[in-house]
Every structure is written in C-alpha cells, then in structure tokens.
Hints:
The protein is α+β, with helices and mostly antiparallel strands. The strands form 5 sheets. A 7-stranded mixed sheet has the order 10-9-15-14-13-12-11. Strands 17-16-22-21-20-19-18 form a 7-stranded mixed sheet. It has a 7-stranded mixed sheet with strand order 24-23-29-28-27-26-25. The structure holds 2-acetamido-2-deoxy-beta-D-glucopyranose (6 copies). Keywords: Signal.
Amino acid sequence: MTSSGLRAAAALLLLCAATFAAAAELSDKLRDDSELSQSTAKSFRRLMPVRFYSQVEQNPIANATLTLRSCTIFVPTNEAFQRYKGSIHVLYHITTAAFSKEQLPKSVSSDMDGNPPLYITKNRNGDIYVNNARIIPSLSVEMTNREGKRQVMHIIDEVLQPLSVQKNAKDNINNPDAMQFLQMAEQLELNDFHLRTYRSQVTLAKKESVYQSPGAHTFLIPIDESFKLSARSGLVDAKVIDGHVIPNTVIFTAASQHDDPKTSAAFEDLLKVTVSFFKQKDGKMYVKSNTIVGDAKHREGVVLAEIVKANIPVQNGVVHLIHRPLMIIDTTVTDFLKSFKENGENGALRKFYEVIMDNGGEVLDDITNLSEVTILAPSNDAWNASLIENLLRNRKKMREILNMHIIRDRLNVDKIRQKNANMIAQVPTVNNNTFLYFNVKGEGTDAVITVEGGGVNATIIQADVAQTNGYVHIIDRVLGVPHTTVLGKLESDPMMSDTYKMGQFSHFNDQLNNTQRRFTYFVPRDKGWQKTELDYPSAHKKLFMPDFSYHSKSILERHLAIADHVFTMKDLVQYSEQAGNVVLPTFRDSLQLRVEEEAGRYVIIWNYKKINVYRPDVECTNGIIHVIDYPLLEEKDVVVSGGSYLTESSICIILANLIMITVAKILN
Ligand SMILES: *[C@@H]1O[C@H](CO)[C@@H](O)[C@H](O)[C@H]1NC(C)=O
Ligand SMILES: *[C@@H]1O[C@H](CO)[C@@H](O)[C@H](O)[C@H]1NC(C)=O
Ligand SMILES: *[C@@H]1O[C@H](CO)[C@@H](O)[C@H](O)[C@H]1NC(C)=O
Ligand SMILES: *[C@@H]1O[C@H](CO)[C@@H](O)[C@H](O)[C@H]1NC(C)=O
Ligand SMILES: *[C@@H]1O[C@H](CO)[C@@H](O)[C@H](O)[C@H]1NC(C)=O
Ligand SMILES: *[C@@H]1O[C@H](CO)[C@@H](O)[C@H](O)[C@H]1NC(C)=O
C-alpha cells in the first residue's frame, strides 16, 4: 500500500466508527482529497446509516446505481428506519442525477418502476423536505465515485413511502395521477378507507380534468364515512370539488406551514375559498376550508376536517384523505358538539362536550333551542387547569360558567370586527348579567381576537367554524374560571389601565397580589376617569401626579373592600334589598352603598350618585372586580378653592408632601 492508500484505509476505518455529524465533517475532507475520491463508492456506502445500507446492498439496481451512476440518494436515519413498519422501497429513495440541497428542483423522478416523482419543499425557515421527510442539513455528503460520477447523499428523518398497491391488485398500477388514484382506490392500501361517494360526485360533476391535470397539486378527498348524512353527498357540486384542490402547490403535512391559507381552485370573483393545514396539540393534523366570499349555495365560514390518511404521493401531486368534506355547512351547532362524543369526528372539543354532559346536558338542550347561536368553545387543553377540577363538581356554578360561553346571535369575526370598530365590543351571554368583551388586533390572517368573560381573557385559536345556525369559535381558556390575581387582572386589562397606573405610583397595588385576602374592588374604567377630567380638570390632573399619590391612594382605598370573602353583584343586590344599604369593610373605615338591578344592569347608588356597573363580577383568584363607569368621587374631594380641591385627609397629605419637598430642598 502507498502511504496515501494507508491514509485512505485509516480514514475509512475512522469513518466506520464515526457518528453522522463527524462523518459529515470528514466528508468535506474526502471531497478535497483527490486520491481518496478514487474509492468513494465504498466510503459513500460506509457513511450510510447501516440499516438502510443493508437494503441498498440487497437491491441489485440500487447497488449498481451507486457503483456506476450519478445519483442522489435520500437515506433515512436508523431511527426513522426502526420507527417505520411497512416495506422499504429503496429505489423510491434514489434519483439518477446528483443534486446538492441548493440544486434540488421542485420535484425529481425516483428510480422506482414508473418513476413516480418525489416532491421537494423548501420552507421559509430554510428546512428542505422530500415528500414528508426533512433533510437533516448538516449531514449531506457529496462525492465522485470510481466512474467519475457525482453522487449526493441526503440524510432524512423519515422513510419515504410511495403509493402502495394491494398485493392482489388486478390492474398494473404504475405512478397513477389523482384521477387514476380515485378510480383504482379499491386496489390501493388505504387503511380500508373507501372513496366511492366522492368519486361518483366527481364523475357526476364532470370534474375529472381537475384530477388529471398535469403538474403538482394538493388533493383533499373525503372518505365514504363522511357522507353518513344522506343529504350531504348531494351538496358536493363542482365548486365544492374545486374547493378540495390546491392547485400548483404540493403540501405534505410535515412540511406544511400551519395556518397559512392557500387559495383553492374555488377562488374567483363570486366565490373565494382558502384551505390551510394545522395541527392540534395531540398531534392530529387537520385541514380547514374558509369560504371568505360565499354565495347562495356555499355559505361563508370555516369547516374543519381531520386528515385520516395523509401524504399519499401521486403523479400530479399529493392526496390526503379527510374525515369530512370541506365547505359543506350542513350541521347545527348541537350536531357539531355531539360529533365530539368519544374520539368522535374530530377530538378538538371532546372535553367541552363531556363537561356539558356531566353537567346534566341541559346546556345542550338550551343550545338546540336557540335559532341563532354562537359558542366560544374551550379547547381540550383549556380544561386542563387545576382550578377547574374543583368547579366541575359544583353543578350550579358550572352551569353558569357554561352559559357564559353561549351567545344568542350569529357572531363571526367580521361582525365582531364591526362591533369593535371604535371600542371593545360588548356582547350579552345566555348567563344573565354576564357579558363578553371582544378585542380584535391586527388584520387578515394575522388578526388576534381576544375575548374576556368573567375575568378570563382568552384568545380565539380557531375562529368562525360555521354551522347552519351559527358559529363556533375555539378558545384557549375556560371563561369565568379565574387564573390571575386582582393585580394581574388590573395589569393586563386594557379597560383598567388608569386605575392600575394610579395604584402603581401610590403603591396601593402592592397589596393586590396577596392571595391570602379576598378583595372586592370597584374599578373605575378608563372612560370613567376620563369623565372626571371633564368634570374636574385640575383634580383629575393631580390624581395622576405622583406628588399627590397619598391623595390618589386614599381615593382608591375607598374602592376596595377587604374581607374574608368576595361580594358578587348578586350578593350586593340581595343585601341592599334586605337592609336598604350595604356597608363594606375597607382599609381605613368602610364603604356604604346600595346596589340595584335595572333592566338587567347593575347600578350602584353611592352618596346620592348613580353609577353604572359596566362589567360586574370579573373574578380573580384572590377577589372580584366590578368595573364601574365613574369613580366613587365626592364633591368635597374635588372642591375647587384657590386651585385646591382638598378633603381633610388630603390636606394632611398635601401638607406632608409640602413639608417633605421643603425638607428635601433644605437638605440640598
Ligand atoms: C453491490 O456492489 C458491490 C460493490 O460494487 C459489490 O461488491 C456487491 O457484490 C454488489 N452486491 C450485489 C447484491 O449486487
Ligand atoms: C325547546 O323548545 C321546545 C319547543 O320550542 C320546548 O318544547 C322545549 O321545552 C324547549 N326546551 C328547553 C330546554 O327550553
Ligand atoms: C394536563 O396537565 C397535566 C399536568 O399538568 C399533563 O401531564 C397532561 O399532559 C395535560 N393534558 C393535556 C391534554 O394537555
Ligand atoms: C335571567 O333573566 C331572565 C329575564 O330577566 C329571567 O326570566 C330568568 O329567570 C333569569 N335566569 C336566571 C338563571 O336567573
Ligand atoms: C386581553 O388581554 C390582552 C393583553 O393584555 C389585551 O390586549 C386585550 O385587549 C384583552 N382583551 C380583552 C377583550 O379585554
Ligand atoms: C403576583 O404573584 C404572582 C405569583 O402568585 C407572581 O408570579 C407575580 O409576579 C406577582 N406580581 C407582582 C407584580 O408582584
């Protein structure tokens, strides 16, 4: 052996032991070393994850290709190999031209019989996928074999799975397009899913050409089971079929950009339908159609469908089988909720349905009886909070909480947006005296919609799921079950920011995080403080000046009852009726008031003033907040005499302030 031969042998030995990462580094060296490249055919094989390599060796065509031809080979990691249960198609992993990651075109022909294509997706974040498998970027290796042919190996995280034909198939099925796929579905391995109904609708609507169209598209095909509702198949017309196709884009689930709406083939002036992919926390993949512009036959709204068999490659793209046709809105809100019965149609709201049924199911009857209804349905995850566990046993309270999620109206995002144009939209719920507050931030697909109810600020994670009699919006928290302290609430609620600010600089807020206490806090909303600005301009200004913080603090103290339990508005009305008046303990002395209910609204009578309660019963972990329309402010708090507005206590405070300022000046 020459010395370079020895070097080569040593390098090869090293390579055998090397991990992928190290191998990748070494491969750079190999490329530079012209002598070594003489024996690359061999070393190339040795770099390969061993499990796949043994498959290559056993396949004469693959083996010969590696020895003789230029090629790109996609090699699954040992781990991916182990995970995979089906049979391995080595030639599906090879294309007979060399492509570095940068050179990979949108699709390449595999070396399998019929040369079915492999689809390449390059994501925004730089990830590259071959069908559903991701190329592990640092592990690609490029070499020249003994014959002087360039070869590239990419390591991938999943075995590539071609369309798979049943053993007893009578037709010779070779690289079918989506239409042939539909026609020969019975001879394919599709986990016993059948596609007859949809296929006959495609034929009936004469839409074969959509499925035969050359190129690379994404086809969503509802399985037969999804047409159990007998009238449903009749609703699959030509437009609906178009809505199940994403032209000129191939989307494999692992490579899909979640919640990134793509225009479907049904996207024109009078009907606009987008389709997007998303994943639930439990790992299940869904597609949703959003009919943005509808017509008489195709209602606006979102339809969700679970993908029951994903990523079936065909000659002109990829097929996903789905559990429900898109675009078709033919169930009521009640039907929709019922469909979540145990591992039902899709699991996303299974918990919500269970809670309703555990509560006795009357809530569902109520929903059924509403001609127009919108539900804010907490996701499965939302129910996974410790505080909820305890509440579930309290049937009455739970019923109230459930009712807080129901609106007697058809309320989609467009409508919320209109209501929300200049202010936070307020919407009554089925639970008496509980309102929901919506806020929309951002535009289009970036819009974030939050909803507040009973002290909880939840985000809509799936909006506008359309039903015949209304909408379902999936939210990330259960409304009415507190999860923050009074302080946390003040800090984050956009309506309470003035009261929060005032309490911050006067250190009044410090106590509000104490979870040993039970606070009842009457919080003037920002608009309320703004009104005092009109009524008492100079007083208002001073309330927000740190120099007068003692004064602000004493005013805030008046708004805060501290006791061993909270006072809901209902409690206060009841006490008022019994005693004519309620006296609540505050830090210094007490707060005297009366509360009445007028036309479903609460009104506080304090010092002969009537103050509306804008948002009653905002529950917190250590108390309850009632948002009021005006502060508990007396004339004598704000009497203007020579520019001053002093009460007895505030005189002391301001004197104290003046003394401090003077002392500070003297000391300086
Ligand atoms: C595979 O190729 C190697 C190297 O060219 C050769 O030694 C081996 O016999 C081949 N195996 C088969 C099954 O063809
Ligand atoms: C629902 O409505 C029907 C008739 O409209 C009525 O008979 C039934 O009592 C209602 N159920 C509930 C729970 O309100
Ligand atoms: C619920 O929470 C527990 C622990 O907090 C966690 O183990 C479990 O996976 C969660 N369940 C869901 C559905 O998120
Ligand atoms: C809600 O209010 C309506 C009308 O004010 C009343 O008829 C109904 O009994 C109330 N429901 C509850 C649960 O208090
Ligand atoms: C929910 O909280 C966020 C963040 O504090 C806030 O921007 C949003 O306006 C709140 N939503 C509602 C409806 O109050
Ligand atoms: C309030 O208490 C919670 C824990 O109970 C803590 O996470 C939070 O930071 C506290 N907030 C402030 C402003 O101190």
